[in-house]
Automatic annotation (TrEMBL):
InterPro entries per the UniProt record, alphabetical: RGS (IPR016137)
Name of a matching Pfam family: RGS
Protein name: RGS domain-containing protein
Domain RGS: 43-151
Domain of life: Eukaryota
Length: 161
């Protein structure tokens, strides 16, 4: 049977009051200044722009056996900023890891996109994967991200704050 708050040690009650004050201050700051933090993500982009958010989301995707989507998106981000002399190597790696129909972490792309990428693999350019990356981003934003927001890993990451 619940004895109420009076049964808790006063040190616990003081600590809880302190945490409540801190959280209410953070909520006010967030509301007034529209601070974007991955722990209160409004969209997938906010989450992906923070290393901690990426890690929490990756853990969630791994638990759902769909981490290849985030890994592909991150590989495309890395590819885009790679020096020209590394792009051909990285493009081949991305194709063989994520796009080839026999890829170990194949992402869900239509046949036309796959064929287009295969035709460009020998002459890569910085935005070569942009359309495919956008397709996977949209898939994560509409499917995985909303589930992540309701998931245990997301709730635990917020509590850890």
């Amino acid at each position: 049977m619940c004895k109420g708050l009076s049964s808790l040690p006063s040190s616990c009650l003081e600590r809880a009051k302190g945490m409540r004050v801190k959280f209410s201050h953070l909520a006010e700051t967030h509301h007034k200044h529209k601070v974007q933090d991955w722990r209160t993500p409004q969209d997938l982009e906010t989450l992906l722009n923070h290393k901690g958010g990426q890690q929490a989301f990756h853990g969630f995707l791994r638990s759902e056996f769909s981490e290849e989507n985030l890994e592909f998106w991150l590989a495309c981000e890395d590819y885009e900023v790679s020096p020209c002399n590394l792009q051909k190597i990285k493009a081949g790696s991305i194709y063989s890891r994520f796009i080839n129909p026999d890829a170990p972490k194949e992402v869900n792309l239509d046949a036309e996109t796959r064929e287009t990428l295969l035709s460009m693999i020998d002459s890569p350019y910085p935005e070569m994967f942009k359309a495919a990356q956008h397709t996977i981003y949209t898939l994560m934003a509409k499917d995985s991200f909303p589930r992540f927001l309701r998931s245990h890993p997301c709730i635990e990451a917020i509590r850890a704050f």
